[in-house]
Write a structure and sequence with these properties.
The structure holds two protein chains of two kinds. Chain A is an alpha/beta fold. In chain A, 31% of the residues lie in helices and 17% in strands. The model of chain B has no long low-confidence stretch (mean pLDDT 93). The chains are: A alpha/beta, B alpha/beta. Chains A and B meet through loops of A and helix 5 of B.
C-alpha cells in the first residue's frame, strides 16, 4: 500500500539548526524506567521507534548532575563518562536507522529528592516542592548560578560525545530554568527575579552557554510550558512565554511547546478521560506565530489527518508524540505505507505514566504488550517468529482483551488454525462496556484494533454466540486450548480490606448491584440515593459514581482507603476526577468499611476506630465495587474433573489460562498475558514465562576477592 | 429427506484491485476466497431439514476447479454428508446459465427431495444460477426465501419482497429454492469437524454438454469517477444545513 498524498507534508524533511530531520515525526522525551543504567533496554526501546520511521528520538529527562537525582523515579543521567558510554549505544542504534538522537538535559531543583545521591538541590528560592514531599532546596546565590550553568555545559559536552544530535535546555514541567521564569517558584529580588527580563536571565544565559559549547555540532532545543493554569503565579503565555521566545529565538534551534506545571502535569499528558487529541495546539500556534524557528509539540496525535491539519494550519512544524509512540512505535511507517487500520492507537489511559509515578518499574502499555520488552524479551511489535508447533490448531475460549491478543499473536505466528470462541455476540469481554463509562470512549480502541487485525488473519476465525462447556472443549478438535474467560465483580462483598464477605451483601437482590449489572446487564439502580462501595482503588468505583451522579442520583462514594481511586494519582486522572465528583455533589466517605448492608441503609465503621462504632448511611441502592474474581469454572472443570490425561487422549497437548481468568488485573497486564503465552507457545512449558534478560551488574568474584 | 445444496467459492476484494491481462477478470492475487455467504445459509437450512427427519442426506455440489474445494469443505465441515465437484476447463469464467447446465446434470442424477441455492453470489451478484437450474430441471422455483416449512409433498415458504413485504407461497416439492441471508444462524464448524471434512473424499465429475454460452465477460474495469462532487466545509451544523438545502433543491427538481 502507498501513502495517501494528503499525508505527504508529514514526510517532508526539516532543518533544525545544524541538523536535518528526515520527516516530521519526533518522539518527545518520555520515561521508560531504563535510564542510563539499563542501557540495552533503553537503546532497543528507542531504536524501535527509529525503525518505525521516527526522524528524531529523545531520551527521557536526562539529569546533568547528582544534584538532580530523581530517585525513586528513574531518569537518564549524564553525570560522568560511564553514562556517556551507556547512552551512546542508544545514539548509535538511532543513527543506524537514520534518526537523530536527542538528550533532554534536566535539572529538577526542589522536585528532585536526591534519594540516591543525598545531594541538596538548588533553586531560585527556598520553597519546598509542590510535587515531592519534604524536599527543600538551597536558595542559589550568584556562585551557585554559575556552577549550575556549568553543569549544563559539561553535560551538553558529554551529550555531544555520546552522539546526541539535539540537546535540550529543559524547562517545562516546572524544572529549574522554568522555575526562574515563574513567580510561583522565583521570589528573588536580585537581577534573577522580579521583572520579566530578570526572571528570563538564568534560562537565556544557560541557553547561550550551552550553545557556545556545542551549538556548532548539536541543535539546541528548548522545552517550555506556556501555561501553568495557576493564574498570575504561574508561567503565562502573553506575559512570559511570547516575550521569552522573542528574546531567545536567535539562540534556539527548535522550540518544544507544551502546557502545565509538574504538580498537575496531567494537564499536559492528558488522559483521554478529559481531553481529546491536540489539546495544546492553541498555545503551540501562539508560539509558532512569533518564532522564526521550527516549533514542535505533543498532542497525543494518532490520526494523520489531525497531524496534517496541525502543520497546515500553522500551529506546529514537527509532530511530537509520546504516548502514541509507545502504543505504536511504527506510527510514522504505517502512515507512510498507507496502513492506517494497522495503527495501534493510544487510548490515553496513562498506564505508561503510572509506572514512572510509582517510581521506577519499566513502563507498560495497554495497547502494545511489547513496549519495554524489545531487549529483555526480544519482542518486536511488528515481527513474529513462525511457531515451531505451528502445525497445531488452537482453541481460545473467551474474546476479551487477553483472548483477542492471544489469538491475534498466535495467528501472526502462523498457527495452522486459531478459533476464538466467545459466548457473547461480539469481541471485547469487559471492554465491551467499560468504554461506556464517562470519558472512557477511547478505551474501545483496545477492542477495535484487535478486531481489525483478527479479521485480516486468514488462519484466525472468530466464533460468537457459542458457550463451550468442558465437553465442548474436549471434543472441539484443538491440540492447544487457551482459556480466557475473564473475571466478574464479587456479588457477596468479598474484598481486599477485610478479606471476607460483607454481611448482607448479595447482588441478586434488586437494591444491590455489581458494575457489570449496572453497565451491561441493564439492572436498574432503584431509588434516588445510591452508595458506591469502592475497595478496588482504580477507575471503576469513581467512574460509576460519576455516571450515576450524572443520571441524577444522590451518590455516596465510600472507600476503606484514604483517597478515592488512588491509582488514578499515578495515571494523572485524579485531580480532574476529584473536581468532577465535587461539582456533581458526590459525597465522599474515605476510611470507612461497611459492617452490614440492609435494605435502605449501610452500616459502616471507620477503619482506624478500634471500638468499631457503626455509622448509618441511608441509601436506596448499593453498588459493590469490592473485588473481582476469576471466572475459572471452565478451566477448573477441564483440569480437575475431565483431567489432563483425558484431554491428552483427545489429542489436547496443552491447556493454559490467561488474563483475568488466571487472576484479575490491569487491562495492560491481561493483554500482556495473552501476548506472552502466544509468543512462548512453542517453549518447553508455555505455562511458565521464559526468563527475561536482566540488566544488572554481575560481580566478577575472583577479581573482587583479589 | 435428501437435499442438494449448490455452493460456490467466491472471491472477495481487498483494498486494492488489479485485473488480469485480458481485462476480463480480477487478478486472483487480489482476491481472498471463501464460501459464498448466501450458500452458508442455504447449507445450514439443508442441515436443519435433514436433522429434523429420521434419515436424510445433504449433498453439496459446486462448480469449480480444485482450489474451489475449500468452500465445499467448509460446507462438509458444517455437516454436509457428501460433496460433488463438477469441472472441466470449459467452465472457467462460465456464465450462470452454463454453470446451471453443469449443475443440472448432477442434481438430476441425485433426484433430491429439495434443491437449495443461495439467492446470489457475493462476487458476481447475478442471482441467475438458481433460476436457470429450476428451468433446466423443470422444477418450481421460489426466490429470496426467508422461511421454510416442509409439508407432505409441498413446502410453505416466505418470499422476501421489497418494502418489507412478505409473500407466503405453497410450492410442490421437489423444488429449487434460493435462500436469503438471515433465514437462520449458520453453525460454526469446530476444529474437529474441519479436520474430518479435510479427510472426506470429494467426488469429481466432468460436465456433459454445456451448450452455447449465454453470456461472456468482455471487459472489467473501474468506472471513471463522476464529476461535480461538492465538498462541504464548516461545522456539523453548517454542513447539516447545506445538506438540507441540497436535498430540498433536488426534491423540487
Amino acid at each position: 500500500m502507498a501513502r495517501d498524498p494528503k499525508h505527504d507534508i508529514l514526510f517532508e524533511p526539516i532543518e533544525i539548526g545544524p541538523k536535518t530531520m528526515k520527516n516530521r515525526f519526533y518522539q518527545i522525551p518520555h520515561c521508560n524506567g531504563f535510564g542510563s543504567e539499563k542501557p540495552l533496554s533503553q537503546a532497543h526501546f528507542r531504536a524501535m521507534k527509529a525503525e518505525g520511521g521516527y526522524a528524531a528520538v529523545c531520551t527521557e529527562y536526562c539529569s546533568i548532575h547528582p544534584e538532580s537525582d530523581d530517585t525513586h523515579r528513574v531518569s537518564a543521567r549524564l553525570w560522568d563518562d560511564d553514562d556517556i558510554k551507556n547512552l551512546s549505544l542508544m545514539c548509535d542504534m538511532l543513527h543506524e536507522h537514520g534518526a537523530l538522537a536527542a538528550a533532554e538535559l534536566w535539572y529538577g531543583g526542589p522536585h528532585a529528592p536526591c534519594m540516591e545521591s543525598r545531594c541538596v538541590p538548588r533553586a531560585p528560592s527556598q520553597i519546598p516542592s509542590d510535587f515531592e514531599h519534604l524536599t527543600y532546596p538551597k536558595e542559589m546565590d550568584k556562585d551557585d548560578i554559575r556552577e549550575v550553568q556549568g553543569f549544563y555545559v559539561e553535560a551538553a559536552k558529554r551529550a555531544r560525545e555520546a552522539g546526541f544530535d539535539i540537546v535540550y535546555v529543559y524547562g517545562s514541567h516546572s524544572y529549574l530554568p522554568q522555575q526562574f521564569l515563574t513567580p510561583y517558584y522565583n521570589r528573588r529580588t536580585d537581577e534573577y527575579g522580579g521583572s520579566f527580563e530578570n526572571r528570563a536571565r538564568f534560562w537565556r544565559e544557560t541557553i547561550e552557554q550551552v550553545r557556545d559549547a556545542v551549538g556548532d555540532d548539536c541543535a539546541i532545543a528548548v522545552r517550555m510550558s506556556t501555561d501553568m493554569f495557576m493564574g498570575e503565579a504561574g508561567t503565562q503565555l502573553e506575559r512570559d512565554c511570547i516575550p521569552f521566545v522573542e528574546l531567545c529565538d536567535e539562540i534556539v534551534d527548535v522550540w518544544d511547546i507544551n502546557v502545565s506545571g509538574i504538580s498537575e502535569w496531567g494537564e499536559d499528558a492528558t488522559p483521554s478521560r478529559f481531553y481529546e487529541s491536540g489539546r495544546q495546539l492553541p498555545w503551540q500556534g501562539a508560539i509558532k506565530a512569533v518564532s522564526k524557528k521550527p516549533v514542535l509539540g505533543v498532542g497525543r496525535f494518532t490520526n494523520p489527518d489531525v497531524m496534517v491539519e496541525a502543520i497546515t494550519s500553522g500551529k506546529l512544524d514537527i509532530i511530537a508524540t509520546c504516548r502514541p509512540s509507545i502504543s505504536d512505535p511504527w506510527l510514522p511507517r504505517k502512515i507512510d505505507e498507507g496502513r492506517l487500520d494497522d495503527i495501534r492507537e493510544c487510548i490515553g489511559c496513562n498506564i505508561c505514566i503510572s509506572r514512572w509515578e510509582i517510581g521506577g518499574p519499566p513502563l507498560i502499555c495497554t495497547q502494545n504488550a511489547t513496549a519495554g520488552e524489545e531487549y529483555r524479551r526480544g519482542w518486536h511489535p511488528e515481527r513474529f517468529e513462525p511457531a515451531k508447533n505451528a502445525d497445531n490448531d488452537v482453541l481460545v475460549v473467551g474474546a476479551g482483551p487477553a483472548g483477542m491478543e492471544c489469538a491475534m499473536v498466535l495467528g501472526k505466528r502462523g498457527m495452522r488454525r486459531v478459533h476464538l470462541v466467545e459466548a457473547g455476540e461480539d469481541m471485547g469481554g469487559g471492554m465491551r462496556w467499560i468504554p461506556q463509562l464517562p470519558g472512557l470512549g477511547e478505551w474501545a480502541r483496545v477492542v477495535n484494533y484487535r478486531k481489525i487485525q483478527i479479521d485480516k488473519l486468514k488462519n484466525v476465525e472468530f466464533i460468537p454466540n457459542t458457550k463451550l462447556d468442558a465437553q465442548g472443549v474436549k471434543d472441539y478438535g484443538a491440540e492447544i486450548v487457551v482459556i480466557a474467560t475473564g473475571s466478574y465483580w464479587a456479588t457477596d462483598g468479598l474484598n481486599g480490606c477485610t478479606h471476607d464477605t460483607i454481611p448482607g451483601a448479595d447482588a441478586s437482590v434488586p437494591w444491590q448491584l455489581t458494575p457489570e449489572q449496572v453497565m451491561f446487564e441493564g439492572k436498574e439502580v432503584p431509588g434516588e440515593r445510591v452508595l458506591v462501595l469502592d475497595n478496588d482503588g482504580y477507575f471503576m468505583g469513581v467512574s460509576l459514581a460519576e455516571k450515576l451522579a450524572r443520571e441524577g442520583k444522590k451518590v455516596t462514594l465510600m472507600t476503606h482507603l484514604g483517597h478515592i481511586g488512588p491509582y488514578m494519582h499515578f495515571t494523572l486522572e485524579a485531580p480532574n476526577q476529584h473536581r468532577i465528583l465535587h461539582k456533581l455533589g458526590v459525597e465522599i466517605v474515605p476510611y470507612h468499611m461497611p459492617t452490614k448492608l440492609e435494605e435502605g441503609r449501610v452500616l459502616a465503621a471507620h477503619v482506624y476506630d478500634e471500638e468499631g462504632e457503626e455509622h448509618e448511611f441511608a441509601t436506596d441502592a448499593v453498588v459493590l465495587v469490592t473485588q473481582r474474581r476469576s471466572d475459572e469454572a471452565l478451566y477448573r472443570e477441564l483440569k480437575d474433573t475431565v483431567g489432563i490425561e483425558a484431554l491428552e487422549a483427545e489429542g489436547i497437548t496443552g491447556l493454559y489460562r490467561i488474563g483475568d481468568c488466571e487472576a484479575p488485573r490491569l487491562t495492560a497486564d491481561a493483554v500482556f498475558s495473552g501476548h506472552r503465552l502466544a509468543r512462548e507457545i512453542d517453549s518447553d512449558n508455555p505455562e511458565v514465562p521464559l526468563p527475561f534478560k536482566r540488566e544488572r551488574r554481575v560481580v566478577e568474584r575472583e577479581a573482587v576477592l583479589a | 429427506m435428501k437435499v442438494v445444496v449448490c455452493v460456490k467459492q467466491v472471491g472477495a476484494l481487498g483494498d486494492e484491485v488489479e485485473f488480469t491481462d485480458d481485462e476480463r477478470d480480477v487478478d486472483p492475487d487480489y482476491l481472498d476466497y471463501a464460501l459464498n455467504e448466501w450458500d452458508s445459509f442455504a447449507t445450514e437450512e439443508a442441515l436443519r431439514l435433514r436433522d429434523a427427519g429420521d434419515e436424510g442426506e445433504v449433498v453439496a455440489v459446486t462448480v469449480g476447479d480444485e482450489d474451489a474445494e475449500d468452500a465445499m469443505r467448509r460446507a462438509l465441515a458444517m455437516g454436509a454428508d457428501r460433496g460433488i465437484r463438477v469441472w472441466s476447463d470449459e467452465l472457467a469464467g462460465a456464465d450462470p446459465i452454463t454453470v446451471a447446465r453443469a449443475l443440472a446434470e448432477v442434481v438430476r442424477a441425485e433426484s433430491p427431495d429439495l434443491v437449495l441455492c443461495g439467492v446470489q453470489s457475493s462476487d458476481a451478484v447475478q442471482a441467475a444460477t438458481g433460476a436457470a437450474l429450476a428451468e433446466l430441471l423443470d422444477l418450481p422455483r421460489v426466490a429470496v426465501v426467508t422461511k421454510l416449512e416442509l409439508g407432505n409433498g409441498t413446502a410453505t415458504v416466505h418470499r422476501e419482497l421489497e418494502g418489507g413485504l412478505v409473500d407466503v407461497v405453497e410450492v410442490d416439492t421437489p423444488a429449487v429454492l434460493t435462500i436469503q441471508t438471515g433465514i437462520n444462524e449458520p453453525r460454526y464448524a469446530t476444529l474437529r469437524a474441519i479436520k474430518q471434512a479435510e479427510q472426506k473424499e470429494i467426488e469429481v465429475r466432468e460436465p456433459g454438454d454445456l451448450g452455447t454460452p449465454a453470456a461472456r465477460v468482455r471487459r472489467m474495469f473501474v468506472p471513471p469517477k463522476g464529476e461535480g462532487a461538492e465538498m462541504l466545509d464548516g461545522d456539523a451544523a453548517a454542513i447539516a444545513g447545506r445538506i438540507k438545502e441540497i436535498v430540498d433543491e433536488r426534491m423540487k427538481a
